[in-house]
């Protein structure tokens, strides 16, 4: 909108070039170009850019709209440029973001409007139930033990198995249990593609007897939503041999329903906000902050491990939080003036409003706290987990989801209370990321992670797995490249957040809100 006019006798002929930056890299590579639109300062481009989206990565994009079109980018008139992260576009209202173009000194370069939408990859899931009637008898001493095998047809005319029902023993009139299958598995999203169904009689030795077959399509199956559909089961061999052959029984589709499987992007586009809270370990085991051996030590040339972990995670999550205000706490320190030990003190020293403006605001408050509090102990997680859980419990309709980042150097002191707090929090819209810094052993953290064994406390099991633990040392780049270290860390610790958010929404049957047109 309102681009600079660089042509003398007419308006500019704009084209937009998209550049992408690799994760942990500073190099920009051209990804693609829009079409050229002649003689306008307000172009609406039709050509789309299709990008793979990863929540856990900072995917930096640069949009350059050169003016007069030429094969050589450098020969075009420079109209400004815009820098944006893909997450910012997806996290903006209705997936629509407007950014000013900059880069031409002393001039307003206009704006660029970006719209992101998720490509529908046929995310529907079908639930259906079938029964059969008067199937051929295949067993000598009893009736048949029938089951169904579903095949999806491929482009080359071959068939791929996509589902088997259970075996119903000793009957010629089986009723199979309802089952669910993704539409893409059934027909690859092509509603008219052939779906072949074979009927077999189960044999213990695996040499199942073929009873017959029939063919249908997703479109035909879907008609069963309003009526029963009956299919004749035919055995081609019998049909050829017997003149009076009619069929080998019938299969009836009793029910057929379709549900959409929602994605993380559906919820973000529907307005779900990610609320980010930080808790930093201020226990004495970190070492005196002014000493180079301390885990809190920040030299003039590089950030501490704490600051790196905070920046790596926070800079990605902030794209999905509209107000960019982040509550930030410390734990395990003696506070001035009376030396009282606290396990959830606000880093900005404001008890009524512990929120900091942006990740830079959190970093500033963290460094300020290091200068004013006394590092002490013990290492208690439960107070800050309960604090965030209390906030999460206030809004459980799916519009808010909380992510708590705990950065710590070591052995946890209140393991029983922490397990209890996590089990309680697992029923709430929240996730917990724990980053371990320094050389300590972190066995207790692995137990909290719950990937191998579901976390429990006093006989209660966690409703969902909501904790992700990683030791920071596993992500440090050998060459000392901090940008690469941060990218690696963020990729791993944030990878589980979309699934954890979806698991909460699914257990509560919360559907994404429809974005306004």
From TrEMBL:
CDD domains: C2A_Copine (cd04048), C2B_Copine (cd04047), vWA_copine_like (cd01459)
Record key words, sorted: Calcium, Metal-binding, Repeat
Signal sequence region: none
Entry annotated with the keyword Calcium: yes
Gene3D superfamilies: C2 domain
Record family assignment: Belongs to the copine family.
GO molecular function per UniProt: calcium-dependent phospholipid binding; metal ion binding
Gene Ontology BP terms: cellular response to calcium ion
Protein's UniProt name: CPNE9 protein
SMART domains, alphabetized: C2, VWA
One Pfam match: Copine
GO cellular component: plasma membrane
Domain VWFA: 275-476
Keyword Calcium on entry: yes
Domain C2: 93-231
Lineage: Eukaryota, Metazoa, Chordata, Craniata, Vertebrata
PROSITE patterns: C2 (PS50004), VWFA (PS50234)
